[in-house]
Specification:
This protein has about 1250 residues and is mainly alpha-helical. Helices cover about 70% and strands about 0% of the residues. Among the domains are: about 770-920, Serine Threonine Protein Phosphatase 5, Tetratricopeptide repeat; about 1110-1230.
């Protein structure tokens, strides 16, 4: 400590030197010392340092003064409050003296001091001084400095200044009437910083004051100030302005009729703020504002567009220079009308982006108006017109992507399900291209960039929309690529659009224009700027595809163009001193050339392949080279790769050892392509480097790598069987481990089944059919203790593999089946072996190779009667699988058994479900009536499990003949009992699948009738209706989007706690509360959670939040769900969440601060802890919302979390898991 004091004393002494250099160096050294976290000053040093720095603020040397100012910020955190107050007092008094230097020091010094560590006393001191400074009407410069600092304080320390908000508002409002424009503008800025954190009462006071002043009809200059202030507080205050809109809108509308361009501009800025911040409250006024925007977007009293329009109609190829001259003729430096047009167009942009529900009406009214304004003479305004139209396209794209799930009943009727807005847009495409055609050849770079951005958006929105108009677009593209005055950014934009155009349209559309398109692209490939080269290579790659699309023969002749593209690409491919992106794209582009046009490159081909081999050996380019060789290997031109294969295989084998997953997967795909297409060129010895690496890759730690590795081995078994023989002994143990893994399913299992079939057919393995079978089934014949570790999934996996081997070797099937039956019947067999044998019989039978074997049938029926649950379940599954293979033999028997054996009914229904799920519709059709009748005989079963099985069978059976069976399900809603209705509604859930199906259009027409069961008198019917609705919202939201308005009120009703469903049950001496409505509420909240992801645009978010708020106080399960919803809402709809923040924080705070009662069981403790963690995750999501720190209640809660060790610990652990920063939370320190 003494060393620090001594060092500081030396510096302070040097600061008094008459030599300015000494003073400068000493002050600089002090600044460096103060920036160290470790420095601690004693009280005397604090006082001396503060005094000296304040003195140096008046130093004669400017550089010393500036350094002294820079020392103030780090000093604040190193000294105690009295010294900070001294600094503030001195700076304030200096500023009030009116000296310019003092004002500057105060501004910079105070701004630097504004850290969250400032105490309320210091804040009070600064604020009172600033309020006094604002009142100094005689010195405008002091006022301006005071207002600047006040804005900064309100922006950074809003929570700490809550007590001063009222006095600040009282001081700021008079400044709005200042005669100086600068004072008025800075006062508006300060008010803008005040409104997000002030109380609702103060906000109402401010809004009321503005309304009162505007009602008095003040001079135009004052009206402008008040309207500008309204726009600012709306932008900053957000939702708060919503409740005042009914009074504000008519007032602002009235002022748009005043002949003052700046006032009109501010009016439209206010409208834009209202629309963006309060879209719901603005709904009644949308028509009025739209009408005004459409009126004033053409407001250009000093210019006549009529001649211009006629010229455009006569010819669209007028010289651009002439147009620009004519524009200049009419330009007027005093003409402010462009501001009115620009603000009205921005307002339209806001309307389009916030009101997707009005998209169709915008296409009727706004779209033609925007198209007509593409001729706008003012460049900046024209850019905004393009931006607004691009927003319209983006909204259309979002809407059409939501509707992509629904399919039609036939391919011949694609337009039925096309988004209406897309249909309307398609009609406008010719007009869009016509008006942009001319703009694309203008000298204005900004206009052309706007055109390309708009056209890119259009190409993304409607694929193929520009196919008929490509001849009209090509001149504009070529002009932007070849014009010498074109900037690099412009060229890149043109190339980006061209690339999108090539990707989204068929090659045939471009082939006639290749002679015009290719030269400018080739020139760009040779450009010195790497970004242009990189984009041009992407375009060149697509042009190669255009020259000869994969699989196309005849037609377009690419020969005249090959050399031109090849030479420039080769030049880039050979270069080593170029950007990484260019290197990679040159490799890919050349790869496409070889793949599509390799037969035109005979002389040059070997040289190119040699370069690819070099790039394969380079760590930086190896992944791109691997993918390129994969592409060439699969080429229909059958490119001869024999010159590089031995070395390439060696290098590729080494990549399989690398700890880089993308490289591993890419290499395996490449090897797969090489073995599949070039097996004849591969010598067995060349594959050895690859074979030695494969066993290590077959492991359950990475299922995808395992799948691709097994697929490669399957290819080898077929194409190079002798090679695989060498590693079968080392690779098979890994394959068997995978088969027995609980993680095995889907594509990996299919790959292993294919591999085992290929292996046994290749007859090269030292393991034949019987050995493979033994290796698969051995683990299931061990003792009962060992069998317990076998996972259920592995039974099904092994059964599939056994059936595959049996299918590949039909001669072995009878012996295998006999052995399996013996295993089932043997009383001494372990349970695991009997279960596996039954499943194997089922899978073998699924192929139809058992026919209608009565012996096998008898064995399975006997097993269904077993006392062992696992054996019974396996037998039920086996019976269903066998029925799939021999439907006519087994199905009548199965239906008879279901009717006559009530004790076995549940298991036999499982068998029937397997049949319905796996059999094609054509096979099932003759049996539909008998199955349907049987199922409805059991749809009112008291057992819910049986009813659910019946419902699943009914739902899946409906697919067989949806047009007839769906109406019959609908009829049952009226005829059946509550149990029957619940079964029917559950059946509908199983008709809603996550992929397109022919039933979709029929479902869309009638799902509303099934959703009426949300109003059913029976609580269980309502619950299953909610489950069905949730399934539709998740798997196929387009089915229910149009019904949300009628369904949501009933959904929300089910989220409410009903006291009539809560009862008390006596359990011995204790009373236990039972809530019969809990399951229905959980189902309702689950629906709400799903709707957030699938149908957000159809929700009234504020109404949605009302029910989320109630859920935050409900049962444990529901609270867990609502915490998730709140976190999701914070990300999706931050503005709405901010609007309800104060009401949402209270239940969150209650959960986070709850402590488990002493003596609670461990389970209750863990449950409560998980609840608190979930609540804290929601809090963390809220803290990530921009501007949340301006909420006093959130600031208080954040401070409470930070100061409470228990809550801080939970919060930190949440941050650690989710990897989020403490950004917003740290800014809460101010409170």
């Amino acid at each position: 400590m003494s060393n620090v004091s001594y060092h500081i004393s030396n510096l302070l002494e040097k600061m008094t030197s008459t030599d300015k250099d000494f003073r400068f160096m000493a002050t600089n050294d002090l600044m460096l010392e103060l920036q160290k976290d470790s420095i601690k000053l004693d009280e005397d040093s604090e006082r001396k340092v503060v005094t000296m720095l304040l003195k140096l603020l008046e130093d004669k040397n400017g550089e010393v003064q500036n350094l002294a100012v820079k020392c103030l910020a780090p000093l604040v955190s190193k000294v105690k409050e009295p010294q900070v107050e001294t600094m503030v007092d001195t700076l304030c008094s200096n500023m009030m003296s009116g000296q310019r230097a003092a004002e500057r020091h105060f501004q910079h010094g105070t701004e630097d001091e504004l850290t969250p560590q400032l105490t309320p006393n210091v804040c009070k001191k600064i604020t009172s001084q600033l309020i006094g400074a604002m009142g100094k009407q005689e010195d405008v410069s002091v006022q301006l400095e005071a207002l600047d600092i006040l804005s900064d304080m309100l922006g950074r320390l809003s929570g700490a200044l809550v007590g001063f908000h009222s006095s600040l508002l009282s001081s700021l409002l008079p400044q709005l009437t200042s005669s100086r424009m600068a004072v008025r503008k800075r006062s508006i800025l300060a008010l803008g910083h005040l409104v997000p954190c002030c109380s609702p009462a103060l906000f109402s006071q401010l809004t009321g004051h503005l309304l009162t002043e505007l009602a008095k009809g003040p001079p135009t200059s004052m009206t402008r100030t008040y309207i500008q202030c309204l726009a600012t507080i709306s932008r900053q205050g957000g939702h708060r302005v919503g409740e005042h809109l009914e009074k504000l809108i008519p007032m602002v509308v009235k002022f748009t009729s005043v002949e003052d361009d700046e006032l009109r501009e501010y009016c439209f800025q206010a409208f834009e703020a209202f629309i963006r911040r309060c879209p719901k409250e603005m709904s009644p006024h949308v028509a009025t504002v739209t009408k005004l925007c459409l009126k004033f977007m053409t407001f250009d009293p000093n210019y006549n567009y009529d001649d211009d329009e006629e010229e455009q109609e006569d010819s669209m190829d007028i010289e651009d220079g002439l147009d620009e001259e004519s524009d200049d003729e009419y330009s007027d430096d005093d003409d402010m009308s462009w501001k009115v047009r620009r603000s009205s167009i921005k307002c339209l942009d806001a309307l389009i982006s916030t009101r997707r529900d009005l998209l169709l009406s915008f296409y009727s009214s706004v779209c033609p108006a925007l198209l007509a304004r593409f001729k706008e003479r003012e460049e900046n305004v024209r850019a905004d017109v393009f931006a607004a139209f691009s927003t319209l396209l983006k909204q259309t794209r979002v809407g059409s992507s939501h509707h992509g799930h629904v399919v039609t009943t036939s391919d011949s009727e694609p337009s039925k399900e096309e988004e209406p807005a897309v249909t309307m847009l398609k009609k406008q495409v010719p007009v869009i291209v016509k008006v942009l055609h001319r703009q694309l050849k203008e000298k204005s770079i900004k206009s052309r960039q706007g055109c390309f951005c708009l056209l890119t958006e259009l190409a993304h929105t409607v694929l193929g929309a520009l196919e008929q108009h490509i001849p009209a677009l090509i001149p504009g593209i070529v002009f932007s690529l070849t014009d010498k005055s074109t900037s690099s950014t412009m060229r890149i934009d043109a190339l980006t659009f061209f690339h999108v155009l090539l990707l989204s349209h068929p090659p045939q559309a471009f082939q006639p224009h290749m002679q015009v398109l290719l030269p400018p692209v080739v020139a760009c490939v040779e450009d010195s700027f790497y970004k242009i080269t990189s984009e041009a290579l992407l375009v060149a790659q697509q042009l190669v595809r255009v020259m000869r699309p994969q699989g196309q023969t005849g037609g377009f002749d690419p020969k005249p163009f090959v050399k031109e593209v090849f030479s420039v690409t080769l030049k880039r491919l050979k270069a080593t001193d170029i950007d990484q992106e260019v290197k990679e794209r040159a490799i890919t582009c050349m790869g496409h050339m070889v793949c599509h046009l390799g037969d035109h490159l005979r002389a040059e081909l070997q040289g190119v392949l040699a370069i690819f081999l070099e790039r394969l050996k380079n760590e930086i380019t190896r992944l791109t080279a691997v993918r390129t060789i994969t592409l060439i290997s699969a080429s229909s031109l059958k490119i001869d790769l024999s010159s590089i294969l031995p070395e390439a295989l060696s290098v590729l084998g080494s990549f399989l050892r690398k700890n880089q997953r993308a490289l591993k997967l890419g290499t395996l795909a490449c090897l797969n392509a090489l073995v599949t297409h070039h097996a004849a060129s591969i010598k067995p010895a060349a594959l050895e480097p690859v074979l030695s690496e494969l066993p290590a890759l077959v492991d359950e730690s990475d299922m995808h790598v395992s799948q691709v590795s097994v697929t490669l081995m399957t290819c080898m078994a077929k194409a190079c069987p002798s090679s695989l023989a060498k590693i079968s002994s080392s690779v098979l143990p890994g394959v068997f481990r995978l088969v027995h893994s609980p993680l095995l399913q889907g594509g990996v299992l299919t790959a292993i089944v294919d591999f085992l079939q290929a292996l046994v057919l290749s007859k090269t393995s030292n393991l034949g059919y019987s050995q493979l079978l033994k290796s698969l089934t051995d683990p299931f014949h061990s003792s009962q203790a060992d069998a317990a570790v076998i996972h259920r999934q592995s039974y099904h996996s092994v059964a599939r593999c056994v059936a595959a081997l049996s299918s590949a070797c039909p001669k072995e099937t009878p012996g295998t089946v006999a052995g399996l039956m013996k295993e089932v019947k043997s009383p001494g067999s372990p349970e695991s072996a009997r279960v596996l044998a039954l499943l194997c019989l089922g899978e073998v039978g699924r192929t139809g190779s058992l026919g209608g074997s009565k012996e096998v049938q008898g064995v399975i029926l006997e097993a269904i009667s077993s006392t062992n649950e696992e054996v019974k379940t396996a037998a039920s599954c086996a019976l269903g699988s066998m029925a799939v293979g021999s439907l006519n033999d087994y199905l009548p028997f199965l239906l008879k058994e279901i009717s006559s054996q009530p004790r076995r009914q549940y298991l036999l229904l499982h068998s029937l479900k397997e049949v319905i799920s796996a059999c094609p519709a054509s096979s099932l059709s003759p049996h539909v009536e008998s199955i349907w009748t049987l199922l409805f005989q059991n749809c009112e079963c008291q057992e819910e499990g049986t009813r659910n099985l019946v419902a699943e069978c009914l739902g899946k059976l409906t697919f067989v003949n949806a047009s007839q069976l769906l109406p019959r399900l609908k009829q049952q809603l009226k005829a059946g009992s509550p149990l029957a209705r619940s079964t029917v509604v559950t059946a509908i859930k199983f008709t809603i699948v996550d992929h397109p199906a022919p039933i979709d259009s029929l479902l869309k027409d009638c799902i509303g009738d099934f959703l009426k069961t949300l109003q059913d008198g029976d609580i269980n019917v309502r619950r299953v209706a909610l489950v069905m609705f949730n399934s539709a919202a998740h798997n196929k939201p387009s089915l229910i989007r149009g019904l949300l308005a009628t369904v949501l009120p009933h959904l929300y009703k089910e989220t409410q706690i009903r006291k009539d469903l809560i009862r008390e049950v006596e359990m011995g001496p204790f009373k236990h509360t039972v809530d019969d409505g809990l399951d229905v509420r959980k189902a309702a909240f689950e629906c709400m959670y799903t709707l957030l992801d699938s149908c957000l645009e159809g929700l009234d978010v504020l109404q949605f939040l009302d029910h989320v708020e109630e859920g935050l106080k409900d049962h444990y399960d529901i609270r867990m769900l609502t915490f998730l919803m709140l976190a999701r809402l914070a990300s999706l709809c931050p503005a709405a969440v901010l609007q309800r923040l104060d009401r949402l924080i209270e239940p969150l705070k209650a959960t986070c601060t709850t402590k488990v009662k002493a003596g609670s069981v461990k389970q209750e403790f863990e449950k409560q802890e998980e609840l608190r963690r979930s609540a804290m995750r929601a809090v963390a999501a809220l803290l990530a919302v921009p501007e949340v720190e301006r909420s006093p209640s959130m600031a208080d809660f954040a401070n409470q979390i930070r100061t409470n060790a228990d809550m801080a610990s939970i919060y930190q652990s949440i941050q650690g898991v989710e990897g989020e920063g403490l950004g917003p939370a740290e800014s809460m320190d101010m409170s």
